[in-house]
Amino acid sequence: MIAQVIVDVAAYPVDRPFDYAVPEEWQALVEAGCRVKVPFGPRNVLGFITALKEETDVPQGKLKPLSQLLDIEPVLTGEMLQLAQWMTRHTLCFEIDALQVMLPSALRAKYEKTIHLSGPLADLPAELQNLFGNKSSIPYKKVEVAGFLKSLKYSIEQGTVQIKTVVKQQGQVKAVRKLEILDDEVKLQQIAADIPKRAKKQVMVAEWMVDHKGEVFTPEELCQTLNITTAVLNALIEKGAAKYIQEEVYRDPFTKNAVKTKPLALTDEQEVALQQILTAMKNKLPTTFLLHGITGSGKTEVYLQAIQSTLEKGKEAIVLVPEISLTPQMSERFRSRFGELVAVLHSGLSKGEKYDEWRKIQRGEVKVVVGARSAVFAPFTNVGLFILDEEHESTYKQEDSPRYHAREVAIWRSEFHQCPVILGSATPSLESFARAKKHVYTLLTLKKRAMQQSLPTVEIIDMREQLKNGNRSMFSEELAEAIRIRLEKKEQMVLFLNRRGFSSFVLCRDCGTVVQCKNCDISMTYHRSQEKLKCHYCGYEEQVPHECPECQSEHIRFFGTGTQKVESEIYKFFPEARVLRMDVDTTRQKGSHERILDAFGRGEADILLGTQMIAKGLDFPNITLVGVLSADTSLNLPDFRAAERTFQLLTQVSGRAGRHDKPGEVFIQTYTPEHYAIELSKEQDYEPFYMQEMQMRQRFAYPPYYFVVLIQVTHEDVLMAAEYAGKAVDWLRMQLSQNVGIIGPTAASISRVQNRYRYQCLIKYKKEPNLTATLQQLIRMYRTDWVKKGIQLTVDLDPSSI
Ligand code: ADP
Ligand code: ZN
Ligand code: ZN
C-alpha cells in the first residue's frame, strides 16, 4: 500500500505530494487525512496523507516507508482535503499551508495523547483490558509500543474508548499581579490609627481600605483612583494592609450564564428575508444571499432563526464574525438562544481552549460555531448554513499564506454541502453588492430598524471653519455642546477616533524632522504612559528625545492625536465626565474587551472612547450621541479602498446611536467635508455611495471592474529588492497579454519593514486565461533560484489593501 503525502517543507521549489510505502502493521490503520512523520532528505518531517493507492512511479528500492503514524483517526475530512487543493490553486499557496491552516495550532504543537475508557471495560478486546487493568485512562504510547493500535481503532469505533489530547503549554497560563486588601476591619483600623498623622496620604488610603476590605485591585488602579504614588502604596503593603496575589487572567469564554432568549416575532422585512433563506435550505440550494440591512435592522435575529431551522433539520451552522472585539456581545446572543450547542473559536482563546472547542465540533457535541476567520474550517460534516456577519470586513482576508478570503471558502463549502450562505452587512463590500446586482448573489434588504426607531441624524462639521473661528481644540463647538447636554441628561456617548492611517508622532517644529524607526521607514508612535516611542511594525522602542537628532533644537514634541491625548482633553473640558478608553493598549489582556463593555453597559462611564474596535456590534440602549473626532485620516491612505473603508466606518459607528427608545445624534468632524465618502455618510444611505464609488473604480480600473494582483518583493539590500522586482515585472510583461495593466515596480508605501526593503507591482486585468500559469511559473523561479539570494516574493490574488 502506498500513501500519498504532502510534506511540510515550504522551501521546496515544487509543491506536490510524495509517495511512501505503508508498513504492513499500519495498513489497517491509515486513512487519508491522518498526519504522519516521513523521511525527507536528511530529516524527518510532518506530513498529511492525502490519498492511499496501490501503484507508484517511484522505483522499488527508492520508495521509503512512513516513519511514524501520528493519528489513527483522521484529523482532516475528505472535504477538507479537496478544499485544500482548491485553495492551493486559487490563492497560489503551498498545499501544506492550506492543510495546516485548517487545523488548530495545538495539532502542530507538542501534546500528549491519553486513552480514556468511555464504555464497560468488558467490551474491550482482552489485550486492551490488560493494559487498562483497573485504571480509567492510560497513555497512548503504551498501546502504541505494545502494538495494539488495530484493537484501539476498533474500540474507538465501538465507542468504548476515546482519545484525549493534552496540549503541553509551558507558561501559557497568564497571571497578573494584583493587590488584595486585608479582609479584617479591626486590623485595618488599627493600622490606620498607628500611622503618624503627618503621613496624610497614608492615613487617607488606610481609611479608604477599611471600606474596601477583602477587595482586589491592580496596583495601577489603586494609584490612579486614590491619586497616590507607589511609594505610599508600598508603605501600606509593608504594614500588612494589603498583599500581592497572582490572579489568573484566563477566563472561560462562558463564565457568565447566558439568559435564555426566545425567537422574536419578526418584522415583515425580516420575515421575507427568512423565508427565502429557508426555501433555499429546503431545496438544498447553495444560494449565496447578501443580507443588506441598515444598522439595527435586526440582521442577527434573521441569523438566529435561520440557524434554528438548520438545527431542526439535524444540521450544523457556522457563523463568522469579524474579530474578537465583536465576539463577547455577539457570541452571547447565540449562546442565549442555543445554549450548550454553541462553540466559540477566536484568537482570544489559548491553544488548549481552542483545541477543546475544535474537538467538540469534530465529535459533533456542538452544532453551532461562532468564530473569527479560521472558524470557516470548522470540521462539521453536515453543515446546513454558513453566515458571515459584517461581510465587508477586511479581517476576513488572511494576509499571510494561504491568502484566502473566508467568504470564498464559505461559498466553496456551501456548494459541497448544498446549503445556503448568508453574507450580512449594512455597508456591503463593493464586490458583493455588484455580484448581488448581477444576480450572482441573491439580495435581501432590510430598510427599517427592527423597532421602528429612526436612524440617528448626522451632522458634518467642517473643522477648518472651527480653526478660522479660533477654536483650536479637538472638539468643535457643536460636539462640545452635545457632550455637555448628554452629561447633564446622564445619557451615554461614544467618541470615535479614526486611527486608521494615523499616527501620533514626534516632530521638530524647527526643521520638520519626524522621529522614525531605525529598522522601518515609518514614524515612531508616541506612547504617553511610558514616555516612549514605539514602532508599530517591528516593536522597536526608544525614549522620547529632548532635542532634535538633526538640528539639536529643543522644540521637538509630540504631534497628532492618540486616544490617551483625547482622554486627557476630555477631562480638561469636561472634568465631571467618566471615560472608558478602548484601544490596543487597554485591551491587551484577555477578557478586557468584555470587561470594558460590561462596565459601560452597567453605566459606569458616560463616554466610551475608542478606535475601530468600538465601531461595530455595540448595542447599548442609553447611547444617544456618537462623535467622530477625525473622519478623514483613513481617506488619505494610498489604497483604492480608502473611500469605501471610510464610508463603512462612518456608517457603522453612526449606527451605534439611538438603537433603542431614545433618538440618536451623530457629529462627524472633518477637514474634507466635500469628499463624497463623508458627504454621503450623512444620509447613511448605501446605494448612492455605491453608485459613485463604482464610477471611480471603473474610471481607475479597480475591482470589481478589474481584478488586481499584488506582487511584493523584499530584500535587506534596497538594490537587490529593486532589481528582482524589476525582473518580475519584465517577465510578467513578456508573458501576459497587452490588455493587462502592470503598474510598477514601485517602492511600497511603507518601503522598509523589519530591515527589509519592499517593492511592489500591481497587475490589473479583466480576463487573462494565462495568468495563473504565469504566476505559478514566477513563483517557481523564485523558489528555485531567487530565494537563495535572500529575496522574498509574495503574490496576493485579491489584496485587501495595497
Ligand atoms: P443589526 O445586526 O442589523 O445591526 P440587531 O440584530 O442588533 O441589528 O437588532 C437591533 C435591535 O433590534 C436589537 O436590540 C434586537 O434585539 C432588536 N430586534 C431585532 N429584531 C427584532 C424584532 N423582530 N422584534 C423586536 N426587536 C427586534
Ligand atoms: Zn530639528
Ligand atoms: Zn520598526
From TrEMBL:
Presence of the UniProt keyword DNA-binding in the record: yes
Segments forming domain Helicase ATP-binding: 280-446
Cofactor note: Binds 2 zinc ions per subunit.
Residues covered by the Helicase C-terminal domain: 543-697
Protein family (similarity comment): Belongs to the helicase family. PriA subfamily.
NCBIfam families in alphabetical order: priA (TIGR00595), PRK05580.1-3 (NF004066)
Task performed by this protein: Initiates the restart of stalled replication forks, which reloads the replicative helicase on sites other than the origin of replication. Recognizes and binds to abandoned replication forks and remodels them to uncover a helicase loading site. Promotes assembly of the primosome at these replication forks.
Protein name: Replication restart protein PriA
Recorded name of the encoding gene: priA
